[in-house]
Amino acid sequence: MKLKSGKKSARKVENKGLNNEEKKSDFVGMIGLKTARKLHARRNSSPGMWFGLGMIGIIGWSVVIPTLLGAALGIWLDNHYADQRSWTLALLIAGLTLGCFNAWYWVDKEQQTMSNEQEQEKKDEGE
């Protein structure tokens, strides 16, 4: 005796005691559920791997560019206006600080967007 496994065989067992009208309504219900699931997945597609890598790139460059610009400006100032202070070090730290605030802005902006989408999704499910 073979044992049937899987969803289809389970549905066959469930449907054995049903009449034709009940089978049709069950079938229509399954189609409606699958359609709703597909539409929800299309509307609310989760960000993929490339999105995550893109965010890492944005955050990385938002720190690197101000840091390098600060260092370059500091080197130029040190070469043209020799002083006891190291403009390179001061502007490198200033650029790094500015870059970190810039990265924080991007991360916070993305987090707010995700939070707003989740709230909207909860409102849509509640209606």
TrEMBL record:
**InterPro entries according to UniProt:** ATPase_gene1, ATPase_put
The membrane-spanning stretches of this chain are 50-77, 89-107
Q: What are the UniProt keywords, alphabetically? A: Membrane, Transmembrane, Transmembrane helix
Query: Key word Plastid present in the record?
Result: no
Record has Iron as a keyword: no
Q: What is this protein called?
A: F0F1-ATPase subunit, putative
